[in-house]
Amino acid sequence: MMKKSDADYADAVLDVAVFLLVFIVGTAALFALLQGIHAPADFAASAPILGATVSAAITFVRSRAHAVWVTVAALLAIVASMSAATIFFDFSSDGLGYHANAIHELAEHFDFLKSSLAGHYAIYINSYPKISWFYAASLLRLTGNFEIGKSINFILMLASGLVTFSALRGSSVVPRSLAAICVALNPIAILQLFTHYVDGCMAAFLSIQILCIYGLFWNNGSRHLAIPLLLALIGAATLKDTGLVFSSVLLAGAFCISRIRKVPLGIGASGAAMLALTFVVLAVNPYVKNLVEGHHIFYPVMGVGRVENLISGQTTPQFHSLDRFTQLGLSVMGKTRNENPLDLATPRLPQLKAPFTVDAVEFTTAGGVDVRWGGWGPLFGGALLLAIASAVWSWRSVRRTAPLLAIVAVLCVISPESWWARLNPQLYVLVCLLAILALQEKRIAGYMLVAVLMVNSGIGAYESAIMMRNAAGYLKRATNELSDDHRKVLYWSERYENLQPMFDRLNLNFERVGPNGAGQLAAWPCKELLGELVCARP
Question: How many CB atoms lie within 10 A of CB 271?
Fold first, then answer.
């Protein structure tokens, strides 16, 4: 029988995770509501403070025995995440592009049923789900700091690890801890920690859902796991269009499993109503808004009116013409590469390799934020083969959890772009789930698999840190040269990217010159920084 102290400890860890999830989802929902009803600016700016207050209140209502230390621990984690988020600047093209466009626009105004956001990326930022943007915009409105919004990546990564640890209660501390670390260190999440990309957040939300379902129905976990399960469902569904599909599949699966195994989800009517209201606030724009404006809910990424070449232009025609299963197999088992589809000298298809081998190009490519082929890491193909072998050795556990494994496997192939790692972070979660089953059966294969996954994620983290350090150093040197050690004014030729956070971080004065005025800068000393032309008056 499990010791009471172990159950209490697992519940306390879960309470910290719930606090973090309520803070993220609550802050985003409150900011969306206040901006949507056009509340005074000071009210909208208070959304993060209100979100933390709501999280603390729920904690004290749910778990008075350890509410104080749970609240303190969660608040410290939030503050630490906000501090860590500012270590590196977001150098990614999407982060400087449509994510920055959306966050700055939402910080100023928002309408529930109208496409009112402006900018070069208006078609996307008006029609995409917005929970991460609401969160970042609320912090931008409160602090004036654009980079703090990246803290969502750190907070959700921590929450996914804590939920995993709690869901596996009953197991010894070492395998639980290894499993929690392994799940949290999803390579997609690691590579996007210092960006405004949202795929790392999706990895965390899906991990939380999957581990909560496992804990609820197969591991005699706390009934309170239903709370992070539903919070993560809301988070994923309002993060990306695909998240709505993934969450719908997981919710339907959880409901069916609950009925079959006669285990209730265990959430009261008041809690369900509050979660439903939160989902409505976050989902009205874009899903209902798109319908009101005469589109469908997944506009403009698919169906009538979709943006052409949104995906096909990201890879070679030869690879794009293959079926999704072949694409996925080649991407997983091939070399980690970011080939230019327009360069005919590069391979047209992923190059297959021996498992557990890594070449020099793979090492440097593994740190990229958006690797096209083999983006799960250079050792992931070998890890997948090892996971299959461990599933054979742990066949009793695999057979017992077959319904959940089948659901996760469907999630891994349901998207036509399942070959693209950042669009399929759940494949890593599937391998982690097989590792957990092996660990719980005390199989050596489980420990081997965890070790391979950690080394794989470590390679990506190391190379990513080097890339960001080098990029930060180059930007500092380049802007110092142009500005004559900050004495000259920089003139920025704005195309599509938003470099203002970079100028703010480096304490540089600048004047914005739009595309039509770029010609006047031709005779000035200039440098191309992050895709933009930046010049200084001679």
Answer: 15
